[in-house]
Specification:
Elements lengths: L5 H4 L42 E3 L2 E3 L4 E2 L8 H10 L3 E2 L4
Parallel strand pairs: 3-4
Antiparallel strand pairs: 1-2
Length: 92
C-alpha cells in the first residue's frame, strides 16, 4: 500500500506542512431548490391521456396490479378499478 509523507504533500513553507489559501471563494449550494411552473395557454386543462393497448386489450392507463393478495377476489379487484388501476392480474 502506498503512503504519502508530510514532505511529499507539502506545497509551501508553512510550519504545519499544509498550505491553506483562504482567499479562494467557496461555492455554497443553495439550501433549497425551487422550480417555477408556468401554465401554457395552448395546453388544455384536462389530464394527459395515459391509455394503452396491449395485445388488443385497451386499458385506461398502464398501471397493472400483479397476481397476489390484491387479485384474490372480486371485491378487492373491483376496488382496484374504482381506485384507478388499469388492470388486475387475477390469482389462479
Amino acid at each position: 500500500m502506498a503512503t504519502l509523507s508530510m514532505t511529499q504533500i507539502r506545497t509551501s513553507n508553512s510550519p504545519s506542512g499544509f498550505s491553506l489559501n483562504c482567499s479562494k471563494k467557496v461555492y455554497e449550494r443553495p439550501s433549497r431548490v425551487g422550480f417555477k411552473v408556468f401554465a401554457s395557454e395552448t395546453q388544455s386543462s384536462s389530464e394527459p391521456d395515459l391509455s394503452v393497448t396491449v395485445n388488443g386489450l385497451h386499458m385506461p392507463n398502464p398501471f397493472v396490479i400483479g397476481s397476489g393478495p390484491p387479485g384474490t377476489n372480486y371485491t378487492v379487484m373491483k376496488r382496484a378499478f374504482d381506485e384507478g388501476w388499469g388492470a388486475v392480474i387475477a390469482k389462479t
